[in-house]
Amino acid sequence: MPPESPEALQQAVSSLKRKKKPVRRDMEKRRQQNVQAQKKYREKQRQRLETLKAIAASAGQNHANEIPSHIGLQQLNAAAQYHTSIHIERVCIAAALYTLVKYMGIGEETFCADDSLSPFYRPSLEFADDATRNRTIGMVQQMYKTLKPDLRPSAEQILIKHHPYIDILPFPTLRRNLIMHQKEIDEDEFLNDTLIGLICWGGVGKARNDTDNVMGHTAAETAWDARSWEAKAWFLKKYWCLLGGEDGELVRQSEWWRSVRGEELKLDLVDLKS
Q1: Parallel/antiparallel/unpaired status of strands 87-91 and 198-204
Q2: Residue-wise pLDDT tens digits, 51-73
Q3: Region entry Disordered: which residue ranges (predicted)?
């Protein structure tokens, strides 16, 4: 093969130079590009947060109640734990219940599966003698002593097979009655009713546009405490017996919240029982 002419070699070299990608050696330029990329990312996140805040502010007009100015000092003193608050936020019920699911260490798949069993339930006790049952109940309750008081398992939760949705409700009387009468209850209907019939009052004295409130973090501070909950009148009427009547935790607490708002201290028990 005859040697290529100098002109041909020069053309080949020029072609290779054109095809070869330039190597970035300017470190300052690369740093500036990274800074700009991070700035764009932070701006995007800020816009997302602002959108969430706008949604929360809009929802807050319907889901946050302020303490009326006509309530006297005596009524506020009756609610001493909240006397420094200007308004009390209403936590999204779905967020509150989800917080309880996580707090109890129940996985999402487990909670949503129809055939899931409570982590407290001990099937081996079904045919055990009384001494063994009592001993095991004590051991299980000791194991879960670190749970918040309103969520610690009762004997029924340990002895009787049931779905874990019952375990996340911070009302011992309601949990016990749900377990004892679970064959008579439509679980889906009951859970749907809790989403629209219950109110969970959140952090006290926090600004309504607080980032934690927007993200639902206030639920973690209150959902496990029965004192944070209130039920609407129709919910009390529908589940009066399951709630334990006048002595049920949720019934008593609902009356307490009504008193804070300056409403009648006693619900219409005659109407509720009818």
Answers
A1: antiparallel
A2: 444 444 444 444 444 334 333 44
A3: 1-44
> 105: left (phi > 0), else alpha (psi -120 to 50), else beta?
left
Largest interatomic CA distance in the chain: 113
CA nearest neighbour of 81 among 260, 210, 264: 260
- Helix pair 187-197, 93-103: axis angle to 10 deg: 120
How many Cα atoms are found within 13 Å in the side-chain-facing hemisphere of 143? 13
User: What are the phi and psi torsion angles at 196 (to 5°)?
Assistant: -110, -10
**Would you state the torsion angle of the CA atoms of residues 5, 6, 9, 15, taken in this order, to the nearest 10 degrees?**
-120
Q: How distant, in Å, are the alpha carbons of 67, 77, 129, 138, 228 from that of 83?
A: 10, 6, 51, 39, 15
What is the sign, positive or negative, of the torsion defined by CA atoms of 217, 221, 152, 269?
A: negative
234, HSE (Cβ side, Cα atoms, 13 Å):
5
Distance (Å, rounded) from C-alpha 155 to C-alpha 120?
Answer: 9
- Residue 184 is classified by DSSP as G
Measured in residues, the chain has a length of 274
- Using the 8-state DSSP alphabet, how is residue 21 labeled? P
